[in-house]
Design goal:
The chain is an alpha+beta fold and 282 residues long. It has one domain: Endonuclease/exonuclease/phosphatase (Deoxyribonuclease I, Chain A). 19% of the residues lie in helices and 32% in strands. The chain contains five helices and 15 strands. Strands 1, 3, 4, 5, 6, 7, 14 and 15 form an eight-stranded mixed sheet that branches. Strands 2, 8, 9, 10, 11, 12 and 13 form a seven-stranded mixed sheet that branches. Helix 3 links the parallel strand 10 and strand 11. The chain is globular, with a radius of gyration of 18 Å. The N terminus is likely disordered.
């Protein structure tokens, strides 16, 4: 069964939206034993061609796709071109909200080949939307998928640089707090963090979760063209995920590069106990 999370503008669906069903009662928190493949991609509003974007994603044959900078007008076509049936729930696509302005026409979009439940915007007490998350169920194991797009630094003005860094810190703190409030369940977080791998914000990211592409030695440039090139796109997970493979795609139809990760349940030696990240998770 193919499923894709997304909300379309009112009137785009021929069929009415269904209410997201509850997570199956027999599903338990954990990471599936089989490898799962994740793709994350800031697609630059499809400015350079939706066909090229989808070809690049389909070439990785992903189980989960986490997209940033997705225009609402492109949701149905993306789902169709990626071969995923629309799962009618209004919280798996979230339009970004600028902290200093109105709601944008674009946002974050999660697509999946597996059932997804309890989708919602990631709680942010500071206001604004920086991401969406949901509970996925594979082989009776449930875990959280989170797709983020944190505040960007648009110019070299020191005041702006300071403010955008502070905004990212609030967003990362809100994400970590909301995750812990859920009982710190198994999670895969991906997206455009707009954060280079250093400083206080990086300390929150790498100190709370694991940088899995970094663990694989695949810490290549993910953003930029010409002289401006850096790493700002990541996969962060709880320790119960074992990276199998992954990488950063060559330059393609965006100013970001597609990143992908294949991961499965971490093998726990008989002398060790399993990670306790799922205690009290909901």
């Amino acid at each position: 069964m193919f499923a894709v999370g997304g909300v379309m503008l009112w009137g785009l669906f021929l069929a009415p939206r269904a209410v997201s069903p509850p997570v199956p009662r027999d599903a338990t928190w954990g990471v599936p034993d089989r490898p799962l493949r994740f793709v994350s991609y800031n697609i630059l509003h499809n400015q350079r061609g939706i066909e090229r974007v989808c070809e690049e994603i389909n070439a990785r044959k992903p189980d989960f796709v986490l997209l940033q900078e997705v225009e609402s007008r492109d949701l149905i076509e993306l789902a169709d071109r990626l071969g995923m049936e629309t799962f009618h729930h209004p919280r798996l696509y979230e339009r970004s909200v600028n902290l200093d302005g109105p709601k944008a026409t674009w946002g974050n979009f999660i697509l999946s080949r597996h059932p997804i439940f309890d989708a919602e915007s990631i709680p942010n007490p500071g206001g604004g939307s920086f991401g969406v998350w949901a509970t996925a169920v594979v082989d009776g194991k449930k875990f959280v998928i989170a797709n983020v797009h944190l505040s960007a630094t648009w110019n070299a003005n020191p005041i702006h640089i300071k403010k955008s860094g502070e905004n990212r810190h609030r967003e990362l703190t809100a994400l970590a707090t909301a995750w812990r409030d859920r009982g710190a369940p198994p999670i895969v977080i991906a997206g455009d963090f707009n954060q280079i791998p250093m400083g206080n914000n990086w300390a929150v990211m790498s100190g709370t979760w694991r940088d899995q592409l970094g663990a694989l030695g695949k810490d290549d440039v993910t953003f930029g063209e010409g002289m401006l090139r850096t790493r700002i796109d990541y996969f962060l997970t709880t320790p119960d995920w074992q990276p199998v493979d992954g990488g950063v795609a060559p330059r393609g139809p965006s100013d970001h590069r597609l990143i992908w990760l294949e991961a499965r349940a971490r093998e726990i030696p008989a002398t060790q106990s399993a990670p306790t990240t799922t205690r009290g998770a909901r």
